[in-house]
Write a structure and sequence with these properties.
The complex is a heterotrimer of chains A (95), B (482) and C (485). Chain A contains 3 helices and 3 strands, in the order H-H-E-H-E-E. A two-stranded antiparallel sheet of chain A has the order 2-3. In chain A, a hairpin with a 2-residue loop joins strand 2 and strand 3 (87-91). Chain A has 95 residues and is an alpha+beta fold. Chain A starts with a helix and ends with a strand. With 482 residues, chain B is of the alpha+beta class. Chain B is 42% helix and 20% strand. Chain B has helices spanning 53-65, 163-180, 220-239, 262-265, 285-294, 299-310, 314-321, 324-337, 340-358, 369-380, 386-397, 404-411, 419-432, 434-442, 445-462, 469-481; strands at residues 3-14, 51-52, 73-74, 76-80, 90-94, 103-108, 114-126, 130-136, 139-143, 150-156, 192-202, 212-217, 247-252, 257-260, 273-274, 281-282. The longest helix of chain B is centred in the middle third of the chain and has 20 residues, at 220-239. Chain C has a domain at 3-255 and 437-479: Amidase signature (AS) enzymes (Alpha-Beta Complex), CATH 3.90.1300.10. Helices cover 39% and strands 13% of the residues of chain C. Chain C has an 8-stranded mixed beta sheet with strand order 4-6-5-10-11-9-7-8, with helices on both faces. In chain C, helix 9 links the parallel strand 7 (259-263) and strand 8 (292-296). Classes of the chains: A alpha+beta (95), B alpha+beta (482), C alpha/beta (485). At the A-C interface, helix 1, helix 2 and strand 3 of A face helix 10, helix 11, helix 12, helix 13 and helix 14 of C. Chain C: Belongs to the amidase family. GatA subfamily.
Chain lengths: 95, 482, 485
């Protein structure tokens, strides 16, 4: 199935990737050629096969409930683009 | 047209673990912004989650308490969306394989009946941070201290039929999580938050109407008001020929109305998939057994026991078992005085009014269970009357003595039971009211019965309430009938 | 022999015998990097001051009586391992300004045994690529032919070692990113079993496939390095709590009785026949060492590429959502609202290939496509794992080419991502199944290196290193150096 331009725009929006108007045709074409490759999967018979999410099929280890972290705000915020009063700043959040 | 309301609730309970669900950061409320946000909580590149055992244990505890199927293999999934309070760009949650499956909870309704509410599932997930909207040059500030706090999201079946039922359900969940010690239930701090799915349908219709979801209602009172407002809004809308739109709404307590949050709603496609950084959680039988062993007596079990063991009414038993603290207090009083009914009356009566007046919780009570039990003992052995007991209770609350006995002693409140002393006191009272005595003796039975109370009142006043009311009655009758 | 031609093992001996000090060695290599790397572009960041400090510290530890094969050994890290106080860029504009506030477990472990890190190595942006052409810092050149790619995504690691700028380096392998560049630059590189090396601090591309590992010139050096990189890490839920084998001890086991499987699908259409011939020559050599050979089949090989290009982008699309311009990394100028902040920061910060994979992954997970793409791919993933499980009932190791072609010309495949994806055909199955894989030098085609790949059952890194080491005792492909370096 080939992606339409509008679908590409929708995917880019979901992924919060700004798209240049000029890039759109090329992006659409490339994505379609990749999807063409991926679609070869559909020919494989996978009836009765369980999906495999993790190669080793191990189980989750549980951590003891202990506070092991200390306040490192100054160090962590030293690399932040915009902070004030210990808060990360973003354009106004409207609810 | 007759309308029926259908309500289902999603309750987010913050689990009272020491550390976060996937990191070793503290979960303390009210810390300076971003001082409890570690590398993992900030979603620094390269960081990975490790699951907190206690969060799992607490979730299982809840599941066992609502007699639910436990997800023996439960799986964390990523819910992908962008929001500034969500540092990873996804929330780690559970989707297809939650830790707690189908269960149920019985709630007591005001008419004294019990209703069983179905619980669809409860799953573990991480809380988001907070956006602070005070103006930073037109920007919002993000505090990620709360990000990663463990949440148990408890999803009910659409079983509630009124706002009152919904509130009763939330109260029952609130009581349960506190009983279990898995959530502090502090709604003002957001430890327990509620999303209400509300729809209406013509009475008798089977199909559900279109629902609206009211997000984040954070007090029992607001839940009731928000739902009632929303029911009315939907009925008005339909009756005016409109249609309910499936959407998320926000309750504004200051205006007592809900409003649409369309901005956040647009075309969400969360792209859930199993989190590749976490493995499936396998719960073995011995783990479940250990959690089962650790379960305390639950509210409904307590309620039933209070009825059978103490002969209390359903109502009294429900009230006294509504919170773990209340039930514990009651049982301590009962033990101290050996009289469950008097204990129940005092806890639900004088003690509750005192707490209400001061706005205190039972665990902050100024009168301890031992003090109250000691007081009731003195009522039972006739050391004091019920009326004097209230005085003693107030004195205890005011810190005027360590025990009821000490107050009685110090204030000289001990009941007078010496017949000689009472008789001479009565003689004085009758002498001082000679005219009334004349009148009494001249009256018929009916009138005498009315006048008798006057003499009792005078006598009790003269004894400053300390004379034994039974003896006063008896001796007074003898003297007047003479 | 001059210092830069020494292997890690040679260096270990020389340092122990005090032939030179770690500081002298470090200075010499730093000089070489300064002189030669401009042609290659293998380093993103050279940490000269830190390297000298670490070298001096290593010398002091040795003077105090400490021993240890890696004490004072110079290495460098692929620039997706977080290094505290040093830029960790993932070769992306997104993280060009990212000074990591912590160390990856691999970085900590190697520092603890005394490795001296000379800097951070170039790579494909966020490890997405097999040519090292998607780096924000420009492509890396193959020392064997500067007009050709070194492979990717650990292309900087490979080029720097092949050019004798460093004896060994860390890399990461999600679909072949250690083995393929090792093959294209005449090196030995090992992708361990999934969960063997901690992923804490290794910036994620595809979490269920990513695995860190060593690149060096010899199997022995890989064994040395892996021994210190591997091990259980409580900070990584997918790390396996199992003791690390003594890889050096297993190197010298004889190969008699070794059962080698040759999957017929690895020698079919698409393989450069000259590479095929080189691989069969390796097989002959192993037979002389006592191995027996068996033809086997891995019937689902051809489905691996489509399945991989669903799973890896799906995980990546989610893993890379954290790059939003809020807490670190690139942020666009004067965003007008939240959406603008996200969309512009991400559009400016990510390169074309990264964006492409994010979009493919987003699509594969989106409503209505999840079952057809993601779940389908996970089912194929199980088929591929099952293929290996049955194959390893019959053989001890599987052998085949690492790549279908030798190094290609810079720019040759950059306009056609699908053509580049097809180059991963032989390597990605090991990542999907989680088994260990090793590539080692197997000769040359037109003066360009050819790699042979060995695959083994879970946690049998020792076996792979053993076979490679034994082969390297009787051949000298791995000792060949590119002219000019």
């Amino acid at each position: 199935m080939a992606l339409e331009r509008s679908e590409v725009e929708k995917i880019a929006h979901l992924a919060r990737l700004g798209l240049d108007e000029a890039e759109l045709p090329h992006t659409t074409a490339t994505l379609n050629s990749i999807l063409g490759l991926i679609d070869q999967m559909q020919a494989v018979n996978t009836d009765g096969i369980e999906p495999l999410a993790h190669p080793l099929e191990a189980v989750q280890r549980l951590r003891a409930d202990a506070v092991t972290e200390t306040n490192q705000r100054a160090a962590y915020q030293a690399i932040a683009p915009a902070v004030e009063n210990g808060l990360y700043l973003v354009p106004k959040v409207i609810e | 047209m007759q309308w029926e309301t259908v309500i289902g609730l999603e309750i987010h309970a913050q689990l009272s673990t020491q550390s976060k669900i996937f990191s070793g950061s503290a979960t303390t409320f009210g810390a300076e912004p971003n001082t409890q946000a570690s590398l993992v909580d900030l979603a620094m590149p390269g960081t990975l989650p490790v699951l907190n055992q206690e969060a799992v244990r607490m979730a299982v505890k809840f599941g066992l308490a609502i007699e639910a199927e436990i997800g023996r293999t439960n799986v964390f999934a990523r819910k992908n969306y962008f929001y500034p309070d969500l540092p990873k760009g996804y929330q780690t949650s559970q989707m297809d394989h939650p830790v707690v499956g189908k269960g149920h909870l019985d709630i007591s309704l005001e008419d004294g009946t019990i209703k069983r509410v179905g619980i669809t599932r409860a799953h573990l997930e991480e809380d988001a941070g907070k956006s602070l909207h005070e103006d930073f040059h037109g920007m919002s500030g993000i505090d990620l201290n709360r990000a990663g706090t463990p949440l148990l999201e408890i999803v009910s079946e659409p079983d509630m039929r009124s706002a009152k039922e919904a509130v009763a359900y939330v109260k029952a969940i609130h009581a349960l999580v506190r009983y279990l010690g898995i959530c502090d239930g502090n709604m003002a701090e957001g430890s327990l938050r509620c999303d209400c799915n509300v729809s209406v349908r013509p009475k008798g219709q089977e199909a559900f109407g279109t629902r609206a979801e009211i997000k984040n209602v954070n007090s029992f009172r607001f839940i009731e008001k928000a739902i009632n407002h929303e029911i009315q809004r939907q009925i008005d809308l339909i009756e005016d020929g409109g249609k309910v739109v499936q959407e998320t709404r926000l309750y504004d307590p200051s205006k007592d109305e809900t409003r649409s949050m369309r901005g956040k709603e647009e075309a969400n496609d969360y792209r859930y998939f199993p989190c590749p950084d976490l493995l499936p959680v396998r719960l073995e039988e011995d783990f479940l057994d250990a959690v089962r062993q650790s379960l305390p007596e639950l509210p409904t079990q307590k309620r039933d026991r209070f009825q059978s063991q103490f002969g209390l009414s359903v109502y009294d038993a429900s009230v006294l078992s509504a919170s773990r603290e209340m039930a514990e207090y009651f049982e301590q009083v009962q033990q101290a005085c050996g009289d469950a009914k008097l204990a129940a009356n005092w806890v639900m009566g004088e003690l509750s009014s005192l707490l209400n007046k001061d706005g205190l919780e039972i665990e902050q009570s100024l009168v301890s269970a031992e003090q109250l039990g000691g007081l009731i003992l003195r009522i039972k052995d006739n050391t004091i009357s019920g009326k004097i007991a209230k005085t003693v209770f107030e004195a205890l609350a005011a810190g005027k003595g360590a025990t009821a006995d000490e107050v009685i002693e110090k204030e000289g409140l001990k009941q007078v039971t010496d017949s000689g002393a009472i008789e001479s006191m009565l003689d004085e009272v009758l002498a001082a009211n000679a005219a009334q005595v004349e009148q009494y003796r001249a009256s018929d039975e009916a009138k005498r019965a009315k006048m008798f109370g006057f003499f009792v009142g005078q006598a009790m006043k003269a004894s400053k309430g300390k004379a034994n009311p039974g003896q006063v009655n008896e001796l007074l009758k003898q003297k007047l009938e003479g | 022999m001059s210092m830069h031609n020494l292997t890690l093992s040679d260096i270990a001996r020389a340092l122990a015998e005090k032939t030179f000090s770690a500081e002298e060695l470090t200075r010499s290599l730093l000089g070489r990097i300064q002189q030669l790397d401009p042609q290659l572009n293998s380093f993103i960041t050279v940490t000269e001051a830190q390297a000298l400090a670490q070298a001096k510290a290593a010398d002091a530890r040795r003077a105090a009586g400490e021993t240890g094969a890696l004490l004072g050994a110079p290495i460098a890290h692929k620039d997706l391992f977080c290094t505290q106080g040093v830029r960790t860029s993932c070769a992306s504009k997104m993280l060009d300004n990212f000074i990591a506030p912590y160390n990856a477990t691999v970085v900590e472990k190697l520092a603890a045994v005394g490795c001296v890190s000379l800097g951070k190595l170039n790579m494909d942006e966020f490890a997405m690529g097999s040519a090292n052409e998607s780096s924000h810092y420009g492509p890396v050149k193959n020392p064997w032919d500067l007009t050709r790619v070194p492979g990717g995504s650990s292309g900087g690691s490979a080029a720097a070692i092949a050019a004798r700028l460093i004896p060994a380096a860390t890399g990461s392998d999600t679909g072949g990113s250690i083995r393929q560049p090792a093959a294209l630059t005449n090196l030995t590189g090992l992708k361990p079993t999934y969960g063997r090396v901690s992923r804490w601090g290794m910036i994620a591309y595809a979490s269920s496939l990513d695995q860190g590992g060593p690149l060096a010139r010899t199997a022995e050096d890989c064994a040395l390095l892996l021994g210190s990189m591997a091990g259980f890490d409580p900070k990584d839920s997918t790390s396996v709590d199992q003791p690390v084998d003594d890889y050096l001890a297993s190197l010298n086991q004889p190969l008699s009785g070794l059962r080698v499987g040759l999957p017929k699908e690895y020698f079919g259409a698409g393989l450069d026949s000259r590479i095929g011939a080189a691989i069969l020559a390796v097989v002959e050599e192993l037979k002389k060492l006592g191995a027996t050979v068996k033809d086997i089949s891995l019937p689902n090989l051809q489905h691996a590429i489509p399945a991989y290009y669903v799973i890896a982008p799906a995980e990546a699309s989610s893993n890379l959502s954290r790059f939003d311009g809020v807490r670190y990394g690139h942020r666009c100028d004067s965003p007008v609202n939240l959406e603008d902040l996200y969309k512009r920061s991400r559009a400016e910060g990510f390169g074309a290939e990264v964006k492409r994979r994010i979009m493919v992954g987003t699509y594969a997970l989106s409503a209505g496509y999840y079952d057809a793409y993601y779940i389908k791919a996970q089912k194929i993933r199980r088929l591929i794992k099952n293929d290996f499980v049955s194959a390893f009932n019959e053989v001890d190791v599987i052998l085949g080419p690492t790549t279908p072609n030798p190094a290609w010309k810079l720019g040759e495949k950059s306009s056609d991502p699908v053509a580049a994806y097809l180059e991963d055909i032989y390597t990605i199955t090991a990542n999907l199944a989680g088994i260990p894989g090793l590539s080692m030098p197997a000769g040359f085609v037109d003066g360009l290196p050819v790699g042979v790949q060995l695959l083994a059952p879970y946690f049998q890194e020792g076996r792979l290193l053993n076979v490679a080491h034994q082969y390297q005792q009787v051949t000298d492909w791995h000792t060949q150096a590119p002219s000019g370096f």
